Each structure stands twice: as structure tokens, then as C-alpha cells.
């Protein structure tokens, strides 16, 4: 008997670890699916009114029965999604509590995020007059054309490699993401807006509820090329609703302050089992005068100590 | 083999019932007494495996902090069953203390298991755990009593062979 008990203890420990890591979501879904028919049957029996029996003639018409069955299945699907979401939030809460304890004894952050302010020179690429002016000024300093001008459509900023601007850095207006530096020269930088067709970034949906905000699904924000954005790669088990807010999941692959992308204006679960989520950006490009380029920098105080 | 199959069916049915009527049944209030009864009825490795799997599946479907309650139930039940088996061994030279009443050990395991589950599921908030524990006991004790009575009656009438470990 001890052998059986020890085996089960080992199984429990394995399941616990796997669940903590997040490997068991699909297993949980499979279990829910296996149990669904029996559970629906039990629920249906349990919901019969007092005094009636399973063999009693129903008072519903066929169409009403079909409607009720559909509603029951929809509720079941929703219940599963809520169950998984609940479990995930429990995990997040536990890890947050652990992290809070760790942060309490740690000192300074290794990586800081700073915002370099930049004025917008143009909303539609580098103008010819500026291009010529840059080339003339650069020739005097022995710089080549490729080091001076950037080609392409989008916002042109008055900051370049001289100020530490580099391709890929996020550009924000307040906390709202405007786009990403796509090309950079000595003195200017070109911004690819988040609505551009080639733009993509890791995002996380934040749901607003009366009891407070909570993190939702992670996905990939892509520009539509027509002034809007969409979020793809959201698992079918997650829930998304109109009005949810969209924040960055990380900054250039590094965890940092959460920047805001916009609000969900359309969320539909298609018959193919995928979410169609549309996002309205949080800024209007035409009205922008000044933006900030978000850069990550190593904490020199800490790296200096480490070298000694 | 037949007994194992019947217990498997019973545990599965209870698992489904708890999942279907979460509005009426607090988690583990029905599954745990059945798992404890299974352990004390079978008194062998098969009972441990069946009860362990049922408790693990339940934890997977309704995860709490950790499957501590299931582990506690399995270890405690195995310890008590092993101790009972040692005490039941007759020896002409050694005088042993008489065994507890037949219902004490399962009840003890159930109470400890439910207490653990209530505490863990409320994330160690004892103020919330206490009423939840009492509510679970109200369902679990009659269920366990019924199963233990059936087990004892089966032994008395000779319908069940008592095997030792």
C-alpha cells in the first residue's frame, strides 16, 4: 500500500509542478471536454423542477429546446474559459506575492528606461529641402549621404544616432505608443507608426472590472495599414471584450513599464475558433508635435560596482 | 478487480457531480469522503491509486495553492491502515492495545483532509476557512457514514473479504 501511496504522492507533486509551469492547460481542457457530457446530464437532471421526473413530458417546443441547449453549451464554454482564467490569475497572484518579497530586499534596478524627447520635423517623410540641407551640412564634416538622410514615409524626428537613438526603439506620446524607430541617421530618425502594415509588437490585454483591472490574454499587435490595429495570436481559451485596454507586454523584449496602445473596439470569436480583435490607437498622428523615444540603459552605479 | 471497477465508477460519478453542481456542493465535500471510504474499504495499493488519481484530477479541475489535502489524506490513511494491520496480527507473546472503533480512523482522516483543503483553498485565511470547513463537514460526514456503514455491514454479513495490506 505504501508503494501505491508514494506513487500517487509523486504524481501529485509532478502535476503540481507542471501546473505551476503552465504545461497542463491543454490537459485541463481535455479533462473538461471528457467530463462535459456527463456534467451536462447531471446539471440537466438537477435543474428539473420539483415534483417532475425525467420521463415527464416537456412543456417546451422543439425550437425552445434547441435554443436552451445552445445556451447551455455557450454557458459551458464560457465557464471553462473563466475557470482557466481564474486559475491563471491565481498563479499570477502567487508569483506577484513572491516577487514582492524579492523586491523588498533588492536595491536598484539593473536596467533603467529613459525617455528622450524629440520634436517632429515632418509627418510624411523627409522633405526634399531638408534632405538637401542635411547633405550639404554633412559634406562639410566628411559624412556620407547614407549617414545623413532617411527615406520612407512616416514621422521624422529631430533626433538621431548622435542622441543615442537606434532602430527598434519605441516612440511614445505620454504613455501611448506612437510607433517604433525604423530608420535612423546622424541627426534624424524615421518612425514607423503602429498603424503601419509591417508593424508588430507583443501586447497584453487588460480587462477593466468593477473590482479592479486584471491582466488578460497576450497577443501580437499588428498595424492594418488603414489607420487601425488588430491583435492576433490570442488563444481561443482566452476572453476578450470591447472596451478592454491594450498595453505592451514588454519593451524590446525586456520587461519594463507598460506602455499603452489603445482600446479594443471590436472583438469577435469567429466560427474558425480564432479571435478577431480590432484596436483603436490612443493617439492622432496629425496633432502630434513632440514625442519621446524610450531607451533602455544599464544602471551605471550597479555595473560600476560589479567591475570593481 | 470488480471492486476496483465499482470504486472507479463511483469516484468518477462523484467527481462529475461535484463539477456539475458547484452551486450546491463545496469542492471536496463529496469526493473526499468517497476517496477516504475507498482507501479504508480497499486497504491496499489499488485503493491508494484510485483515491489518489481522483483527488489529483479534482485538483487539476479546481486548482488551489497545492494538492496538499490529497497528499495528507493518502499518507494519513496509509499510516493508519498499516498500523491497524500490525495490531491485527496475533502473537502469543505480545499483548497489544485494542484497536480504535472501526469508524474513528476514516473520520479522523476525513476531518484532517477537509481542514487542510479548507485552509489551502482560502489561501490560509482562517476566518474564511472555518465556515467553509463546517459546511463541507455537514455534507462529508453523512456521506462517509453511509459508506462506512455499508462497508461494515458487508463485513458483518460476510459479503466482503477483509484483506490485510
How does this structure look, described?
The complex is a heterodimer of chains A (308) and B (165). Chain A has helices spanning 2-21, 25-46, 62-103, 128-140, 300-307; strands at 111-122, 155-157, 170-173, 176-184, 189-193, 200-209, 212-223, 229-232, 245-248, 260-269, 275-281, 290-298. With 308 residues, chain A is of the alpha+beta class. The radius of gyration of chain A is 27 Å and the shape is elongated. Chain A starts with a helix and ends with a helix. By secondary structure, chain B is mainly alpha-helical. Chain B has one domain. Chain B is built from six helices and no strands. Chain B has helices spanning 2-20, 31-42, 45-61, 68-88, 104-121, 126-156. Chain B is globular and about 50 Å long. Chain A binds chain B through residues 1-5, 7-9, 11-12, 15-16, 19, 24, 27-28, 31-32, 35, 38-40, 42-43, 46, 83, 87, 90, 94, and chain B through 15-17, 19-21, 24, 43-49, 51-53, 55-57, 59-67, 70-71, 74-75, 77-78, 81-82, 165.
**Can you tell me the number of structural domains of chain B?**
1
Strand order of the largest sheet of chain A: 1-2-5-4-3-12
Low-confidence stretches of chain B are none
How would a crystallographer describe the biggest sheet of chain B?
none
Mean pLDDT of chain B: 85
Amino acid at each position: 500500500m505504501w508503494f501505491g501511496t508514494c506513487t500517487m504522492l509523486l504524481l501529485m507533486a509532478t502535476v503540481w509542478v507542471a501546473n505551476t509551469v503552465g504545461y497542463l492547460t491543454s490537459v485541463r481542457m481535455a479533462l473538461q471536454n471528457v467530463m462535459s457530457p456527463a456534467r451536462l446530464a447531471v446539471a440537466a437532471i438537477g435543474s428539473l423542477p420539483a415534483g417532475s421526473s425525467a420521463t415527464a413530458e416537456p412543456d417546451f417546443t422543439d425550437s425552445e429546446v434547441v435554443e436552451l441547449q445552445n445556451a447551455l453549451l455557450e454557458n459551458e464554454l464560457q465557464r471553462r474559459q473563466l475557470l482557466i482564467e481564474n486559475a491563471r490569475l491565481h498563479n499570477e497572484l502567487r508569483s506577484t506575492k513572491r516577487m514582492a518579497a524579492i523586491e523588498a530586499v533588492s536595491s536598484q534596478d539593473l536596467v533603467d528606461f529613459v525617455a528622450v524627447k524629440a520634436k517632429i520635423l515632418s509627418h510624411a517623410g523627409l522633405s526634399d529641402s531638408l534632405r538637401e540641407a542635411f547633405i550639404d551640412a554633412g559634406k562639410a564634416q566628411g559624412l556620407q549621404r547614407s549617414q545623413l538622410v532617411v527615406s520612407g514615409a512616416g514621422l521624422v524626428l529631430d533626433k538621431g544616432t548622435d542622441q543615442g537613438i537606434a532602430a527598434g526603439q519605441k516612440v511614445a506620446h505620454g504613455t501611448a505608443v506612437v510607433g517604433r524607430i525604423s530608420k535612423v541617421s546622424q541627426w534624424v530618425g524615421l518612425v514607423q507608426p503602429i498603424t503601419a502594415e509591417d508593424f508588430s509588437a507583443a501586447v497584453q490585454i487588460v480587462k477593466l472590472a468593477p473590482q479592479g483591472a486584471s491582466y488578460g490574454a497576450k497577443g501580437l499587435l499588428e498595424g492594418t495599414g488603414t489607420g487601425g490595429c488588430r491583435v492576433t495570436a490570442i488563444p481561443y481559451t482566452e476572453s476578450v471584450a470591447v472596451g478592454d485596454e491594450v498595453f505592451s507586454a514588454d519593451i524590446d523584449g525586456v520587461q519594463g513599464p507598460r506602455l499603452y496602445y489603445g482600446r479594443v473596439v471590436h472583438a469577435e470569436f469567429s466560427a474558425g475558433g480564432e479571435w478577431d480583435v480590432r484596436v483603436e490607437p490612443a493617439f492622432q498622428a496629425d496633432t502630434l508635435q513632440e514625442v519621446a523615444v524610450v531607451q533602455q540603459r544599464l544602471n551605471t552605479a550597479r555595473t560600476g560596482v560589479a567591475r570593481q | 478487480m470488480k471492486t476496483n471497477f465499482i470504486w472507479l465508477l463511483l469516484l468518477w460519478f462523484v467527481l462529475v457531480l461535484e463539477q456539475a453542481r458547484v452551486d450546491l456542493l463545496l469542492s471536496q465535500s463529496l469526493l473526499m469522503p468517497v476517496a477516504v471510504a475507498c482507501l479504508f474499504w480497499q486497504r491496499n495499493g489499488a485503493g491508494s491509486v484510485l483515491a489518489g488519481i481522483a483527488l489529483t484530477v479534482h485538483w487539476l479541475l479546481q486548482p488551489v495553492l497545492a494538492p496538499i489535502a490529497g497528499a495528507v489524506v493518502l499518507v494519513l490513511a496509509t499510516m493508519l491502515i498499516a498500523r491497524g494491520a500490525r495490531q491485527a496480527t496475533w502473537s502469543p507473546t505480545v499483548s497489544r492495545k485494542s484497536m480504535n472503533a472501526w469508524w474513528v480512523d476514516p473520520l479522523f482522516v476525513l476531518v484532517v483532509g477537509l481542514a487542510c483543503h479548507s485552509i489551502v483553498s482560502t489561501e490560509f485565511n482562517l476566518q474564511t476557512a472555518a465556515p467553509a470547513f463546517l459546511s463541507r463537514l455537514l455534507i462529508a460526514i453523512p456521506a462517509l457514514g453511509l459508506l462506512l456503514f455499508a462497508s461494515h455491514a458487508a463485513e458483518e454479513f460476510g459479503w466482503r473479504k477483509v484483506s490485510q495490506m
